[in-house]
Amino acid sequence: MSEEQIYENSKPARIPKLTSSVHNIGAEEPPFGSRFLTEESDVWAQNAWDHVPPPNDQTETIAAALERQRLGPVPDEEKAKYNAKPAKYWDNFYKTNADNFFRDRKWLHLEFPDLLSAAEPDAGDITICEIGCGAGNTAFPLLSANKNPKLTIHAFDYSSHAVKLVQMNPLYQDPPVGSIQAAVWDLSSENSNPPGVVPDSVDIVVLVFVLSALHPDEWRRAVCNIHRVGSIISHNIPVYD
User: Fold this and answer.
1) At what angle do helices 86-97 and 76-84 cross, to 10 degrees?
2) How far apart are CA 36 and CA 19, in angstroms?
3) More confident residue, 126 or 80
4) Which residue intervals of the chain are DSSP H helices?
5) In what order do the strands lie in the sheet with 202-208?
């Protein structure tokens, strides 16, 4: 037996953390920092869990996946094609998958309480702008939970077919409370404002898995455009995406 194996075998068994001094972990929707997985069968009950160690072989699994990708890179001419007309390929994606690919992001209010506050009945005039709205998997859960009659949601995507999917949704055509508008907009265009949005008029800008979908050369233009619109809420995969 190697020294490493002896060391691993000698370490005390990890005792799962079942309590929190800050939050009520028994709450129906406990916040981050208090979600402790105690039953394996509950693993899919939350979007994420706290204090759950990764599998022992996760590092090796990631390294093997990255190595497979390195062995079969996208040809340079294909890279140029995809980056030159991304809207075309996103249109094809949504024509194929419609609104069946991405799940509704019902976890957003857990990560970003500001969204929940904006939907309260007495929140007042609030404007939320979602950039990269896709088929509405962020906008519609928020609209469904909204109780604020003065909440306005703007949804933008540079796939015209994605925008059509949003506009065809019954919630878009007849929102129960508040209002929603959707339009085509390219976040990475130079010095551009979203259609119908005045600079500095948006209270919350939502970007979920958007920046990682842009070419690095487009990040500066995207951030400059967002900065003119309002405050940012972003959820992205920083590595291995």
Assistant:
1) 80
2) 8
3) 126
4) 3-10, 58-71, 76-84, 86-97, 108-111, 113-118, 139-145, 160-168, 170-173, 219-229
5) 179-184, 151-157, 126-131, 202-208, 230-235
**What pLDDT is stored for residue 19 in this prediction?**
43
CB-neighbour burial class of residue 156 (10 A; exposed 0-12, middle 13-18, buried 19+): buried
pLDDT of residue 114: 85
Q: What is the DSSP string of 85-105?
A: -HHHHHHHHHHHHTTSSSPP-
pLDDT in tens, 164-212: 989 999 999 999 999 999 999 988 888 888 888 888 889 999 888 888 8
Task: Please list, in sequence order, all residues whose beta carbon lies within 8 angstroms of the beta carbon of residue 191, skipping any fewer than 6 positions away.
Answer: 221, 224, 225
Instruction: Give the integer Cα–Cα distance in Å for 131 and 133.
Output: 5
pTM: 0.70
